[in-house]
Amino acid sequence: MYAYWARCVAEGQPPTPRAVAVACGTTIHAARAAVRRYKAGIVPKRQSPGLAPKTVRNIHTMIHRALADALAWKYIADNPASHIKPPKKPRSRRPVWNAQQIQTFLKSIQTDRFVALFLLELTTGVRRGQICGLKWSDVDLDAALITVHDNRVVVAGRAVNKAGGKTVNADQTIAIDRATVAALRQWRDLQDKEREFFGRDYKSGDYVFTYEDGRPPHPDSIRQRFDRLAIAASLPRITFHDLRHSYATVALKAGINPKVVSERIGHADVGYFLQTYAHVSLDDDREAAEKAAGFVLGDAWLSGTADT
């Protein structure tokens, strides 16, 4: 879409969202969002030719697994994929908000319709598709538990319901805190009043988060809403997905066991989780070193060096 939009702008004829949608074969919703981003200066990064290292690794894993089964069934005598070394996946630290910035954001959105959605995201770290696809049948406010499994994802610009999570661990039941339970109760009361007001015109679907008439929000609408709210709060720009990483980072800094945090956010591999958030452990280790040394040494070391 960006190539088409940029070409038209260079020719002095900026295309409308509808023109972009028709030319690129996407929805008007996706085209509007794209044009809004391009006008704001948020453009796609230039990609190097070929597949990304992560994609190559995923393909290699799938082929290796298939050939391993063939080897076990004695269809082949050797697994050729075992001799291939996939490319290393570069690790980059995602931008996150600290606890103070999260609190600033939550205070600034107290009157927003979807404040409970953002609160739930920042206290659980579940994926966007899971929070958009969450249904009341999967929420037990009395027990303070939610079960996340179904996804509401975006395919070719359209919101599509998808059963099951991204990983095996993504489908699970997790606890929620008292503040989030209270916010969800308040939100459900409002939703019940709206359901009564609209009557038969209310769109039934049992979704936890909806518009006034019961329609579930498009996942991209939630992302765009978050972008606007973050800008209004004068906070550093991060993506909605980065809220997930912000939760994990703050939880680790709060002293929560890494295995527990990994399981709560649905990571399939605890080892991968520890590698991803190794910088948090390193920061904590550095802080521990300073605190321990300060307690053990006091001013003795400085006094000793001053006397020499």
Automatic annotation (TrEMBL):
Gene3D superfamilies, per database record? 1.10.150.130, Intergrase catalytic core
Where does the Tyr recombinase domain lie?
92-290
Instruction: Indicate the transmembrane segments per the record.
Output: none
Could you state a single Gene Ontology molecular function term? Answer: DNA binding
Question: What's the protein name?
Answer: Site-specific integrase
Q: What biological process terms from GO does the record include?
A: DNA integration; DNA recombination
Keywords, alphabetical: DNA recombination, DNA-binding
Q: So what family is this one in?
A: Belongs to the 'phage' integrase family.
CDD domains xref list = INT_ICEBs1_C_like
Species assigned in the record: Mycolicibacterium brumae
Q: Which InterPro entries match?
A: DNA_brk_join_enz (IPR011010), Integrase-like_cat_sf (IPR013762), Integrase_catalytic (IPR002104), Integrase_recombinase_N (IPR010998), Tyrosine_recombinase_XerCD (IPR050090)
Q: Which Pfam families match?
A: Phage_integrase
